[in-house]
């Protein structure tokens, strides 16, 4: 409760600097890291992502500054270095990963599939020198075998999910490993909201995977449901 009061006070203080007379802010349990607001004239009311709970006053202030900049100047928010560092910190993940997982659907919450073990695949990527990061990443298969979205990740929460459509004995292990590599690349390349997800640098990195061509063609077959 104290935390909420501190957060709202920070929003009010920053809001005044931006010329807002009335500012309300409360936490809201969005699944993703997201904040919404309603503005009427110089009054604004925020629903702030509750993943910021416990972040501390300087983060509240910087974060509010980003949002007010966006509201007033009608441009995308760019996080300050302080907010960015906080969002990338181990502390942030420690505070929020579990909460995020409780809100996640369609996960088995385990790296052990029927056929493949994601931890083993990750270690194999490390041995190949393709993954150096990834400490504390939560790995899971999806519950349902999605054929069109083979992998998913939350860069902020360090969660990676691989479609259980790839957890089958008639697919070689490098297909799931390649998708895992793709998601780990997202985690490595970070959270800059201004870059596009699959830009040329990303593609270049992705193709360091030795069997990317074969893996891609297997993925097409899985999507067309024409495996085996
Ligand atoms: Zn991707």
Descriptive tags:
single chain, about 230 residues, alpha/beta, Zincin-like, 2 domains, three-stranded mixed β-sheet, 8 helices, binds zinc ion
Termini, distance in Å? Answer: 57 Å
Do you know the CATH architecture of the largest domain? 2-Layer Sandwich
Contiguous uncertain segments of 5+ residues = none
Portion of residues in beta strands equals 5-15%
The total tally of domains equals: 2
- Please report the first level of CATH classification, the CATH class of the largest domain: Alpha Beta
Describe the structure.
The chain is α/β, with parallel strands linked by helices and 228 residues long. The protein folds into two domains: 2-87, Zincin-like (2-Layer Sandwich); 102-223, Metalloproteases ("zincins"), catalytic domain (Zincin-like). It has eight helices and six strands, in the order H-E-E-E-H-H-H-H-E-E-E-H-H-H. It has helices at 2-17, 57-73, 81-87, 90-102, 118-127, 173-189, 200-206, 212-223, and strands spanning 22-28, 36-40, 43-49, 138-141, 151-154, 159-162. A three-stranded mixed sheet has the order 1-3-2, with helices on one face. It has a three-stranded mixed sheet with strand order 4-6-5, with helices on one face. The longest helix is centred in the N-terminal third of the chain and has 17 residues, at 57-73. It is elongated. The model has no long low-confidence stretch (mean pLDDT 93). It binds zinc ion. Zinc ion is lined by residues 182, 186, 197-198. Zinc ion (ZN) binds next to helix 6.
